[in-house]
């Protein structure tokens, strides 16, 4: 590694630093864009939008206030607007030749050159990585990225003296702050670190400062253990899964792409876009596959559910990827929804394609995908099983990945499901009102940790009312579940099985989810979930459903006159106990309505179980939580198997005033065989019989298994088989 | 009246009964449609859809089961499907000449001819108007309408013997049942009665039975006090407002139009479409004005909020209106969203217009409208104040109408507000899952009366925890509020003031709502609500907001560890008490977020008041209610004025991660003058001052008023004036 770094440092001496601009785009590139503006509507529209905004500031005095407010407050929003304004104005200088745009950038930059050397830590700083212009260093890094590109875009219009003033006054204090005061943070392998490296690196390219670029690439010590290359190697799995999950890859993808693009211009010899088998291409595709049909990122770990792929970050990544990796129909679908482009070569090229393409698909080409997690791909993973297409897509997400750093949730073996665009079984997401000053300055709210990240907020087993890994990030970071087996080649039988041995000291959790396509287009999920222990425990399996209760097969008692919380800690304190039941030796069935579709959870109850209907809102005097329901099955014992079937069924038509297939088809669930080696489950659905046999220990593809079921032998090969009326389901 | 009826009965002897078909469309008309099918895409699509469905039944034995199930159950849905199938098949017989379609109708009709004479009241009948084929007579009336048209469409293909079998077996028992067994119901002036008259009348036209048609037109006694003409005269106000509200006009508009259309063919001398200054044209336009920008009917009285103007009823009404009253751009916008047409002359004509029109507006041309209620227009009314256009429309509904028959709610002087398509201050609507068998057979649920209709479920004053008129329909039907004054000619200052004197024995309620457009496009509502009594009362003013609490100006205490209902009856028993506060001599401000917009309610608190945050769900073990929040201000005293300002403000952008104008501008509200004659309210908004002066007694337009405010004289003419920084607001 040392040797490689040395060679690269040597090569970098031939960098084309003399040229400007270079970071966001080259001079020749922008000349090309300039000629295209009037040709392609989306490019023109994007240009006009920027120009309209910047022009409104041309004759005005732009405020560069002394930092004071948290996110959502005036000084925060002003500084954020300033770096965008400078960047856009720099672009317009290149695209119009009008020197007033360069002057606007210069005026603001000179104010920062005066302000920045005077700054100490921000008065609202609460995190371990305080900012100076902003409350957190992350926002300062954003500022460096855009301000660096802005400076580069107008560099040629400045006198050497102006350059020195700006580089020493505006940039150096910030770069020094990041790379010295916040050195450990700068060197972290984390999305903040990606932004920090991109910021320092882009300023390095803009100012011709090789030291800055080298620190950005290889860490402050230039060993390669930190820095951008390490971020590329460490935060993605080999197939492009970002360890923090899709919400944060959405955020990190911008500095990854924008710095890679700058490096591609400034240090082409790095061949950064080809790095690690084009990891950035895989990362973008994986990010897009992890969205719902409306473009919203799927809520793995901390996630704001409103975020979708029309966000600025994805516009940037897609327009650069289009140029770096070539045309792609999926990217074009997303670009059409974005309805705006970057004013660079990629953006102009997409705008041209949008103008000439007919029949651009309206939905991204979603497919079943499975990703491994961890830099080496050996830290579990996550599966997105899909059935149907376009608006009629079902997406089942099953998580058995590593914790996902500081934004991770304690939800090993958890699932959530989207159907027809609706989030039918949900992950709460994160407790945060981003940019809303009244809500703790737009930061993560306390309930994010105390509720949303806790296991009970998810759809997986909670033992003894404690979260996985006891809710400790340090422990969670060292562990992850392992995939036992999966099969997704038969579209009608998609199955993933995973085992978690460390969430609790003396309990193994083994869950297998089958997404099955039955005759006549019916879709069901079969969920076989073993909790294995030699000690007695209380096991809760919640289903975080979204919808209105329509019917249950069992009698329950509602908390009609008073409501109390379900528990006292680990997230339980936030759940009102709305209703409960004790059920015994039965199939507990619960039907709810979401939008215009019915969903039924049918669960085998052997011996007895308790059932709870809960709703968030207890112990939430600040109204930080949405009021959301959950259906929880509670069993006590040593080893327990939760066998459930989720049916997607019927149609509620309030306009036509009729319902079809509003009742579930499942009549019975039986475990015909269940021990440490095998499970055979049988589901009676009307006159049809579904039988699933699976291995619990030997997951090899070639082994032949035989078990006695109902007195006769049942034989199959490999980890599982699914029979429908005695025939293998296709 | 007797004389007129006699003359009309005389004239009716010249009816063109010999011709068939006549009820849905004439032979010549259908010949024309036939030629157009391949010309216009929407017409062709509508034809193909019907044909596909009917063809799938051509060689099958269609079940005509003995009635057994409630709505949502098999026999209900089968009979419903059967009348649609017969009607469509009858149409196809005329449009294709294929005799198999006539045979299909005949086969089914003959089964009904066998079944119907054997029927007693439906086993699931629970209402005072039981059905025979269905659980309620209303559905039997639907059956008569469509089956009558179906018979008429294939009449020419039957032998006289077949006709007699069908007329005596299928129709006569049903017509006799309606006009004899259910005579009082048939003669009711109510939407059920409209359906019943349409059913009997259409069967009369189809079978050439003058007696049936006469009963349909003038009631069983043929006095004109009941029947279709009386329904046209009695259920609409002179300007077309339907007394049950928009949800039920949506339902009634179909039998009105389809029977009017049939009469137009069979008894053209009635000039039915011109009746009462074209009341059906006014009714349809009023119905469409009472929708949200997504086409959903506004929730006045019992209403299912999913219902929109793409429903079958509106397709029928619009296609007939287009033919009867001529082309209209608004109707075309609705027709484009419906994306299907009737296979008649109007439908073909709309399809032609849709094919040739460019730039059809995507949003119906909504405007501010005010309707009087009552056949004579003297029973109060309802105002829909509007500001903005297209997707940025604000609609403020203010109700001071008559009760609205059996589906009325006890919400005199209640308001609700839609903004940007979202229901920001809501009416709960109705508690019903239509067509869902598991939810009480799809009927209205008990909570519809016990919660949704009660006053506390609305945004108007509740005194002493009792609903208006003590929640008694008979009392409510005899009373209504009265408009004091209104002005909607200045788009920036729209105001409606109404008084209710009978909701409580010793309390007068007087509410005035101002929808104001301030500079820079800001919209606010000023709400001046007097409760006037000489006795002590508890007054609750709820705001049924939809959204997430963002901030309050006052401290409150959350019910964190246990939650109890707010009251014990009149709807209060369903409200969980989530949080509460006592506030004193202040402006109580409450900001919430709905979608991407902030809303703040600022309320003047003189002396002291209690504030409650509640949520539905208490005493609801069947989960029949949605969980919805409310913000309630409670004051005690004799006379009280509730002065509130609702601000629509700012933008929450979770994708761009910023908020603008998330804080309210209102800093103070003062009542500068307030007695039985005048109220002068002053609102400080930042540096701006809004002053409203209004009369509480003399509402004449010409009177000049002078009051002393802050020691100087204030003068205005007419019932109100609105000043903004001392200038009249324009």
Structure description:
The structure is a homodimer of 730-residue chains. Chain A is of the alpha+beta class and 730 residues long. The first copy, chain A, has a domain at 369-696 and 714-728: Beta-galactosidase, Chain A, domain 5. In chain A, 32% of the residues lie in helices and 27% in strands. Chain A is built from 18 helices and 26 strands. In chain A, strands 6, 7, 8, 9, 10, 11, 12, 13, 14, 15, 16 and 17 form a twelve-stranded antiparallel sheet that branches. Chain A has a five-stranded antiparallel sheet with strand order 1-2-3-4-5, with no helix packed on it. A five-stranded antiparallel sheet of chain A has the order 20-21-22-25-26, with no helix packed on it. In chain A, a hairpin with a 6-residue loop joins strand 2 (380-387) and strand 3. In chain A, helix 12 (246-266) runs antiparallel to helix 13 (275-289). Mean pLDDT of chain A is 96; it is low at 7-17. At the A-B interface, strand 12, strand 13 and strand 14 of A face strand 12, strand 13 and strand 14 of B.
């Amino acid at each position: 590694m040392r040797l490689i770094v040395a060679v690269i440092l040597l090569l970098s001496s031939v960098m084309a630093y003399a040229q400007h601009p270079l970071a966001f785009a080259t001079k020749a590139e922008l000349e090309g864009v300039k000629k295209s503006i009037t040709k392609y509507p989306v490019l023109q529209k994007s240009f006009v939008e920027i120009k309209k905004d910047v022009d409104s500031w041309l004759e005005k005095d732009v405020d560069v206030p002394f930092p004071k407010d948290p996110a959502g407050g005036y000084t925060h929003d002003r500084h954020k607007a300033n770096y965008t304004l400078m960047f856009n104005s720099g672009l317009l200088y290149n695209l119009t030749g009008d020197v007033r745009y360069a002057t606007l950038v210069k005026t603001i930059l000179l104010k920062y050159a005066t302000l920045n050397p005077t700054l100490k830590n921000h008065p609202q700083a609460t995190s371990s990585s305080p900012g100076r212009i902003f409350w957190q260093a992350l926002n300062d890094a954003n500022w460096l990225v855009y301000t660096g590109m802005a400076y580069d875009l107008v560099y040629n219009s400045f006198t050497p003296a102006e350059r020195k003033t700006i580089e020493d006054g505006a940039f150096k204090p910030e770069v020094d702050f990041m790379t010295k005061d916040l050195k450990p943070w700068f060197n972290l392998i984390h999305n903040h670190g990606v932004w920090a490296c991109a910021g320092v690196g882009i300023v390095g390219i803009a100012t011709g400062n090789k030291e800055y670029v080298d620190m950005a690439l290889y860490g402050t010590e230039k060993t390669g253990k930190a820095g951008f290359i390490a971020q590329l190697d460490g935060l993605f799995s080999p197939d492009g899964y970002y360890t923090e999950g899709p919400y944060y890859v959405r955020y990190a993808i911008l500095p990854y792409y924008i710095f890679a693009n700058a490096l591609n211009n400034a240090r082409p010899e790095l061949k950064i876009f080809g790095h690690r088998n084009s990891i950035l291409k895989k990362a973008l595709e994986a990010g897009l596959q992890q969205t719902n049909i409306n473009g919203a990122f799927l809520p793995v770990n901390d996630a704001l559910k409103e975020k979708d792929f029309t966000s600025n970050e994805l516009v940037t990544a897609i327009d650069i990827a289009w140029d770096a990796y070539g045309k792609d129909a999926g990217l074009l679908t997303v670009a059409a929804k974005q309805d705006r482009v970057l004013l660079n070569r990629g953006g102009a090229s997409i705008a041209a394609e949008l103008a000439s393409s007919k029949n651009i698909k309206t939905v991204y080409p979603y497919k079943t995908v499975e990703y491994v997690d961890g830099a080496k791909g050996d830290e579990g993973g996550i599966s997105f099983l899909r059935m149907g297409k376009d608006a009629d897509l079902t997406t089942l997400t099953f998580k058995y990945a590593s914790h996902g750093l500081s934004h991770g949730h304690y939800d090993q073996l958890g699932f959530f499901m989207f159907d027809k665009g609706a989030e039918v079984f949900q992950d709460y997401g994160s407790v945060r009102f981003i940019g809303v000053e009244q809500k703790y300055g737009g930061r993560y709210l306390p309930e994010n940790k105390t509720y949303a990240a806790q296991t009970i907020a998810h759809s997986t087993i909670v033992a003894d009312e404690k979260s996985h890994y006891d809710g400790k990030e340090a422990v969670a970071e060292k562990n992850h579940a392992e995939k036992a087996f999966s099969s997704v080649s038969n579209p009608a039988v998609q199955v993933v099985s995973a085992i978690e041995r460390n969430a609790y000291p003396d309990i193994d959790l083994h869950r297998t989810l089958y997404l099955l396509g039955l005759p006549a287009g019916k879709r069901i999920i079969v969920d076989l979930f073993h909790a294995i222990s030699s000690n007695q425990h209380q096991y809760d399996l919640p289903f975080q459903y979204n919808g209105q209760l329509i019917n249950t097969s069992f009698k329950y008692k509602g908390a009609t006159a008073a409501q109390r919380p379900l528990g006292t800690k680990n997230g339980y304190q936030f759940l009102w106990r709305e209703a409960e039941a004790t059920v015994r030796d039965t199939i507990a069935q619960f039907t709810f309505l979401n939008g215009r579709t019915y969903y039924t959870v049918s669960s085998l109850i052997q011996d007895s179980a308790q059932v709870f209907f809960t709703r968030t809102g207890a112990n939430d005097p600040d109204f930080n939580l949405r009021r959301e329901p959950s259906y929880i099955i509670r069993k006590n014992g040593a080893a327990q198997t939760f066998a459930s079937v989720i049916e997607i069924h019927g149609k509620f038509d309030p306009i036509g005033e009729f319902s079809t297939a509003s009742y579930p088809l499942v009549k019975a669930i039986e475990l015909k065989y269940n021990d440490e080696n095998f499970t055979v489950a049988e589901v009676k659905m009307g006159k049809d019989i579904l039988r699933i046999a699976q291995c619990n220990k030997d997951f090899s593809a070639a082994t032949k298994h035989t078990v006695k079921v109902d007195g006769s032998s049942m034989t199959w090969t490999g980890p599982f088989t699914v029979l429908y009326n005695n025939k293998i389901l296709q």
